[in-house]
Specification:
Elements (H helix, E strand, L loop, with lengths): L2 E4 L5 E6 L5 E8 L13 H8 L10 H9 L4 E6 L4 E8 L3 H14 L4 H20 L1 H14 L12 H6 L2 H11 L6 E6 L3 H12 L27 H4 E5 L5 E8 L8 H12 L5 H9 L3 E10 L4 E9 L4 H17 L4 H18 L3 H15 L5 H10 L2 H11 L6 E6 L3 H9 L2
Parallel strand pairs: 2-6, 7-11
Antiparallel strand pairs: 1-2, 3-5, 3-6, 4-5, 8-10, 8-11, 9-10
Helix pairs in contact: 1-7, 3-8, 10-13, 10-16, 11-12, 12-16, 13-15
Length: about 425
């Protein structure tokens, strides 16, 4: 069982021993992401993430950092989401001190030179353009915009070309100092370790050398999202980017629930049955029987206060309307007819099997416990999730489907050769 410590400078330390692995993952998580930004500095969380790898006093350049980690075959990276930001090093457990030393140095001693800020602006702008040019990726942002509107949850995590161009080094540095302090940090050590060793190394590298202000641990303020009292019209609920592509890239979805909502267990089963693999209902009906899609899946996203449920597909553009109607039919079936005992059991077995495979990776273990602690305030073991999933009934699956999959509240994002008016006409029939 993982063990939680609070270090002298306020850092929350979570030690997660994992048997049968020679690796260790050291993950630093901050409960801060793009939804905590205001429009003028949209993209600053992601910008800070980039700058963390651009040099410290001891390791002046990116090359100095990468060369040291590459020399021992380490896996290292960072990620920025809307509710959190994380930095990790996965390494041979015999080299674990390097992971602790490197992360501490990067997080608390990054130089953020003005020259690097200027250079990185160009890199990030190209990254934004790359996402926009990739319809599979950009349709996700388009869907967020239709679902959350002009709210930080509906903005691009990376910001816009305008905000990235205009942001100053001072604004970036102030944001970094206001959020990257010890008491706002969760440090997770997962893999071949024990609580005693993890604590000793955390104190050695994350307490003694750290001289930044020690503020009170709080979740950063964020702008809560409230669904409008009246469901917006189709003009707002349909987002279209008209461009010539081989496929129509589509996300059809609905307002959902926050990431620790009790409905999440039945919803996990529901979404697996609908679009959780090659034997799912949507895959069989949309792709195998009718050849309308190359890819179709179902999923959910959850934040501190809100979330979304969606079906995503790469569809034959000429048969988009037919595909949407098939999806609607399958969604309505699961709302009206209880799933069979076998289908329910197969979905549970599939999810539990995927979890077992995923948890062989120390990175997955580290991120799992980090998210549970940050958003639930407690240590939730995977076994607890499995126990809850096993208890889900066919009735609960149908109830969750009826509760959330309402086509009157549906949002639709499409990238393809069709105009917004054409897509809106299709959406009206759903």
């Amino acid at each position: 069982m993982p063990k939680l410590f609070k270090l002298k400078n306020g850092i929350q330390l979570l030690a997660v021993p994992v048997s049968g692995t020679k690796a260790i993952t050291v993950l630093a998580m901050f409960p801060i992401g793009s939804r905590y930004e205001h429009k003028k500095i949209s993209g600053v969380s992601h910008f800070v993430e980039h700058l963390m790898f651009k040099g410290t006093a001891r390791r002046p350049t990116t090359l100095d950092i990468s060369r040291e980690l590459d020399a021992v075959g380490a896996d290292y990276n960072a990620f920025t989401y809307k509710d959190f930001t994380g930095y990790y090093v996965r390494i041979d457990a015999d080299k674990k001190e390097l992971a602790f030393d490197m992360l501490s140095d990067m997080i608390f001693n990054s130089k953020m030179d003005a020259a690097e800020v200027a250079k990185e602006k160009g890199v990030i702008i190209e990254e934004l353009r790359m996402y926009e040019d990739n319809p599979t990726m950009f349709v996700e942002l388009l869907f967020d915009r239709t679902l959350f509107g002009d709210h930080p949850l509906g903005w691009d995590i990376g910001g816009s070309v305008k905000t990235v161009t205009k942001i100053t080094r001072e604004e970036i540095y102030n944001y970094y100092r206001n959020h990257y302090f010890p008491a706002n940090m969760l440090l997770v050590v997962a893999g071949r370790t024990n609580p005693k060793s993890a604590r000793e190394l955390a104190e050695k590298y994350f307490v003694k050398p750290v001289k930044v202000p020690n503020k009170k641990f709080t979740v950063a303020d964020y702008k809560k999202h409230n669904w409008p009292a009246k469901t917006p019209g189709l003009n707002v609920r349909v987002g279209v980017k008209t461009q010539k592509v081989d496929q129509a890239h589509v996300i059809l979805g609905w307002p959902g629930f926050k990431n620790n909502h009790p409905d999440r267990f039945a919803a996990t089963i529901l979404l697996n049955i609908l679009g959780g693999g090659m034997s799912s209902r949507l895959f069989v009906e949309v792709r195998e029987k009718r050849g309308l899609a190359y890819m179709v899946s179902a999923g959910a996203m959850g934040f501190r206060d809100i979330g979304g449920i969606y079906v995503q597909a790469g569809l034959n553009a000429d048969r988009l309307e037919e595909a949407l109607q098939v999806i609607k039919t399958e969604v309505n079936k699961i709302k009206t007819t209880p799933v069979s005992r076998k289908e329910l059991a197969d979905a549970k077995s599939n999810i539990i099997g995927h979890l077992a495979l995923a948890f062989e990776n120390s990175n997955v273990q580290a991120e799992w416990y980090a998210k549970r602690f940050l958003f639930e305030g407690r240590l939730t073991a995977p076994e607890e999730l499995i126990k809850k999933l096993k208890k889900v009934t066919a009735k609960e699956v149908r109830q969750v489907a009826q509760k959330y999959l309402d086509f009157k509240k549906m949002r639709l994002a499409v990238i393809g050769s069709l105009s917004k008016n054409e897509v809106a006409k299709m959406a009206k029939k759903l």
